[in-house]
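Milestone M4 deliverable, item 7.
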Amino acid sequence: MCGRFSQESELSEIRLELKVEQLELLREFRPLYNIAPARKAGFEQAFVTQGRDAARTLRQGRWWMIPHFWSKPLEALPATFNARAEELDKKPFWRHALAEQRCLVPATGWREFKPIGKKKQPYHFRLAEPRFAFAGLWSRWASPEGEIVDSFAIVTAPPNAQAAAYHARMPLVMPRELHDAWLAPGTAGAPLLLEARARSAELPLQIHPSDPRGNDARFEGPEVVAPFELTSEPEPPQFSDAPAKPARRPRRP
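Output delivered:
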């Protein structure tokens, strides 16, 4: 996943879709078409959690996971807005959240990119259903100054056949039938990930080119996700297993 998604639903629609009973919002809720990761305050996005009392809460947090045990400056965080499904039960960075703090991230679509020469052409991904949710992990962190900060990561998986033509990863859509188990504290997360990944391999996607102006995270509005007419076909993407240079991309946890 390249790090952009859309959430075009109204608050009432999300509450109904994800059975939300409580709200803990930091700012006025509004639909957004060009959501980008941010570890700093001011760009918090919606996600849904469930407590031991089984009540579901819609929160707003930073889309850049800050684990509860983090003790270094936020600038030292690796790129933790995505969490690789196949690593969650193996890496200490994610293990606690997988066991105890899973969440759902409401969405209506996401974007990936293909190169056209030196430029990047975005493609918007949708499902047949207008609203769905990504599998997510969340955390509550206390800063050295005593500020309480909620944050989350979106779980990603290897792409299915359609998505593989655009990117080497895709966000993991959590099937509705698994929402209850995924949110319930105390249930094992690893088997749910396996089932969700198997379902995603057969997930039909609706894909269309979108406006390159949306490459700039400051550009916001329905134009970001609307179909866009291409003047030339993008070159096939080239993926490599070689590690990225640290100066260009943060390391993974």
